[in-house]
Specification:
Length: about 270
């Protein structure tokens, strides 16, 4: 029988390099940043985002010359976001860039390793608070080395739901307003950490119970969604189908019961695929 590749070398190397670029982020965190607007004033990039992505790609490419890349800032710079069946590193150098610009510590670097369009392992690292979340397919999810699991919440009335403004296009603002009107009276409370990666890993460790977002990208949710799944949570497309990494949306919750109470009531928007 053919041996199954467990991608150990890739995982260990990725961990090292993500921690290394954490130093770049930490050094820049309290300083004034050079900020540029991408699609709008609510969609930002800093020189640090770009530098971190460059260092990650260079380091990974030196070690593994045959793998492909999808990186948030490379795509912003004009490269195509193309997910093939080949081994691919999916990179969000700083998730929560608006937080970073404001020296708000809810930020992380997200690195996912995908093969055959499935996430094999993923790393989410907040260098400011030294918080590391990892998951490898079929092997559980971990926070700073300790195994984590989602909450056992089954009732929407006892749930903390995450909602995000994200990049505030008019259709997203309308959607958020409608969903807030629908869900605020039905849940225990709402949170918004300003980073899709942090939202999802908090769900994975039981700090919040459910989250849905539309309009973000593969680098925001592919990696962290494996951490939720490996922690026992449910992730799917907002339509109820299997998660689609190019469809730019996710519905994630601790239990199938929560999913069933949320999904039929979500107001959605149509988005161009990545
Ligand atoms: C954003 C954050 C935010 C989410 C947006 C993302 P960025 O990523 O994850 O929480 O709501 O949709 O674009 O721009 O900070 O890397
Ligand atoms: Ca991001």
């Amino acid at each position: 029988m053919a041996e199954v590749n467990t991608w150990d070398t890739e995982f260990e190397f990725a961990l090292e390099i993500v921690k290394k670029v954490g130093e770049i982020i930490k050094n820049a965190f309290l300083r004034d940043k050079v900020v540029t607007e991408k699609s709008s004033a609510t969609d930002l990039v800093t020189e640090t985002d770009q530098e971190v992505e460059r260092v990650l790609i260079k380091g990974l490419e030196n070690k593994f010359p045959n793998y492909r890349f999808i990186g948030e800032e490379s795509v912003a710079g004009g490269l195509k976001c193309e997910l093939t069946h080949d081994p691919t590193w999916v990179i969000d150098p700083i998730d929560g860039t608006t937080n970073f610009v404001h020296s708000n510590p809810h930020i992380c670097t997200i690195l996912a390793f995908m093969v055959e369009q499935e996430v094999e392992f993923s790393i989410v690292y907040n260098p400011i608070l030294d918080q590391l979340w990892t998951a490898r397919r079929g092997k559980g999810a971990f926070y700073n080395g300790a195994k984590i699991q989602v909450s056992s919440c089954k009732s929407l009335g006892s749930a903390i739901l995450v909602q995000e403004v994200g990049s505030a296009t008019p259709d997203r603002v309308n959607m958020l307003t409608t969903n807030s009107t629908t869900f605020i009276p039905r849940v225990r409370s709402i949170r918004s950490y300003g980073s899709a990666g942090i939202n999802l890993v908090y769900l994975a460790m039981g700090s919040v119970d459910a989250y849905f977002e539309m309009g973000f990208h593969i680098w925001d949710y592919a990696g962290p969604s494996l951490i939720v799944r490996e922690a026992g949570g449910v992730v799917q497309d907002v339509s109820g189908s299997k998660i689609d990494y190019l469809a730019r949306n996710i519905l994630a919750a601790s239990t199938p019961e929560l999913i069933e109470q949320i999904r039929p009531n979500i107001s959605t928007i149509t988005m161009e695929r990545d």
